[in-house]
Amino acid sequence: MHEDLTPERLDLLLDGAVLPENDAEREVLRLAAALVAAEPEGLPPGLEARLDGLPAAAPKRRARDWLRTRWGRVSLGAAPAVAAAIAVLVIAVKPGDSPAPASWTQSSELAGAATESAPTDLLSDSRRTQPSGAAGEERLDGADSRAAAPPAAAKSALAPPFIETGGRPLRTRSGPGTTFQEAGTLGDGTPLNIACTARGDEVTGPFGPTDIWDRLADGRYVSDAFVFTDTDGPAAAACP
Amino acid sequence: LGVTDATLVLHATGARLAPRITFDQAAEPANRLAVYRYLVHLTRNPDLAEDLTQAAFERALTSLDRFDPARGPLRFWLVMIARRVAVDHMRSERSRRAREERYAAAEPDHAPPPDLPGEVSPEMRRALGSLSDTEREAVALRVIIGLSGTEAAAVMGISPTACSTTLHRALTRLRRDIGAADHA
């Protein structure tokens, strides 16, 4: 090949944009033709059959895969939050229940469905909470045998104050605010013994937004936004 | 929103439209052959090339809706997929080998490279074998598959100029080696 066959000229020759003008150019085209001629004529029979065996259309993408790819594209970090929000809505909207507004179902004071139940000895009324089930069934039961809990439908018959979360466990805190350390959870419908009330972080719930926090007899606090007290104001005297 | 606006919105939001091509169009005989030939030269292993060809068309099948004719012809798109499949395979193969060498006594592997299919003369096989991976890939894309210079460069992830120079170097060496064998 001659020195004067530049890469640019070679490109044009290979693309058929120009015709060979000298022996060097004719030689390189002969070489290219020889390379192509040396290629196998067709596919190996086995491969041909394997490619024929592929389905003619892509399998229908399942909705879950689609969502996963969508979320992966939007933001990986946002996916768990979105999933959690949808899970909350699904659990909260039970047959017979009115849909819970997202403003309070997303409250940080509501624990996840898998949250461990509070230790029995910490509960003022000695009732046990149970880890919530996926179906959103009543969380209080007669595990204690002496204290059978009312079913969900009869919750309204409970004498206030009691917890109203739409089915999820409510976080309890060591102080009147969302930044205080968590001290376990209480189940939906748990009757409370409010010792006194304090002002703290504002929380949005079925009975809020409110900055009132209820201190229980055992010293833990819950946001009044999730406690039915039959009053918009403090249900007990201010804590000392 | 008009139809055009809606389409624009769909594009802007990354929504997928219906595929513009069918799998049969993508897997027509000429395209199958192009992908297989390219993979044979890329891997220099006909058995592996068969497996990778199948994997490439499987991947093409599930992403037909991503083919955009504005970005290049069908064969270019398929070769891009084939290269990704091959690179993924080699990467996992490398890590697998590294793992095995770490945990087991490495067995000496002196098996001669398998013969390439086709009517490759011994001289040409030797000459092709003396090319670097990049040079061989440039020859496969430009000469054997017939992609344009721009397309071949895009597949290899290099500039068109670098692709031209590589191809020029490769053909010069092939011409010299094969010519020398002819005169020997």
Describe it for me?
- The complex is a heterodimer of chains A (240) and B (184).
- Chain A is 26% helix and 14% strand.
- Chain A has 6 helices and 7 strands.
- The longest helix of chain A is centred in the first third of the chain and has 15 residues, at 23-37.
- Chain B is an all-alpha fold and 184 residues long.
- Helices cover 70% and strands 0% of the residues of chain B.
- Chain B has helices at residues 3-12, 23-26, 29-43, 46-62, 74-103, 122-130, 133-144, 149-156, 160-183.
- The mean pLDDT of chain B is 82.
- At the A-B interface, helix 1, helix 2 and helix 3 of A face helix 3, helix 4, helix 7 and helix 9 of B.
Which features would summarize this protein structure in a list?
heterodimer; A: 240 residues; alpha+beta; two-stranded antiparallel ribbon; 6 helices; 7 strands; B: 184 residues; mainly alpha; 9 helices
Rg of chain A computed from alpha carbons, rounded to a whole number of angstroms: 35 Å
Report the strand count of chain B. Answer: 0
Rough outline of chain A: rod-shaped
Number of strands of chain A: 7
Look at the helices and sheets of chain A and give the structural class. alpha+beta
Residues in helices of chain B, as a percent range: over 70%
Share of β-strand residues of chain A: 5-15%
**Adjacency order of strands in the biggest sheet of chain A:** 4-5-6
Sequence of secondary-structure elements of chain A: HHHHHHEEEEEEE
Low-confidence stretches of chain A: 114-156
